[in-house]
Design goal:
Number of helices: 3
Largest sheet: 9 strands, antiparallel
Order of helices and strands: EHEEEHHEEEEE
Distance between the termini: 36 Å
Number of strands: 9
Amino acid sequence: MTEGKRLKIRARDAEDIRTLSGLLQDSLAPLCDVAYLREEKRFVLVVNRFCWEMLPQELRERALSAPDTPEGQAEQDDVSFEDVDDLPTFHRVNTGLCFDKVKSVQTKGVDLQNKDEILNLLTVAAIPGYITLHFSGGAAIRLVVSQIRCHMDDISEPWPTLNQPRHGVDDAGHEQDKHPEGTRSPEEA
C-alpha cells in the first residue's frame, strides 16, 4: 500500500478470511469501537491495523525486524533523534470491519461492556457457520453466521511508527476452530 491508497477487501469464504486474517494480525481493537447490531445482523469494529504490506523492502528481503533499541544504545538511556533516523519506519492505519449475516455473538475472556479494554487481534478463523476472532491472552469473539460476508476498509491514512509487533510463545498457542464435522453447535462454542 502506498500513501493515499487504502485497502478495501471483501471476504466470502474461509480462504478469503485467511487472507483477511494475515492483514489483520496484530491489530489493536478497542472495545469502545466494537458493536453487535442485532437488528441489522451485523458485527462491526474499528481496529488500529499494523500495515504488514508496507514493511520496508530491506526487511521483506531479509525477513528481519527492527531492533528494540538502536545499536549501541543502552536500554535505560534516552534515544536521540540521530539514533532514530537509522531505524526502519513501520505503519499503522485505522481499519473498519463489518461482518454481515450474524445470528449471534459469543465471547470467551471478553466483556463487550468494558469499553476501556483494548484487545490484540492474533487471527481470524472461519468454519461453516462460525467466524472466530482470536486475541492474545486466549480471548475470543465468535460470530454465529448464516454465511461468510465480511468487508474491510482502511478508513484513515497510514501513520508511521517505530514499533513492530512481537509475540511471545504463549500468544501463538491459541485454540483453533477444529471440529470433526467442521461445525460446532452454540453449546460447544
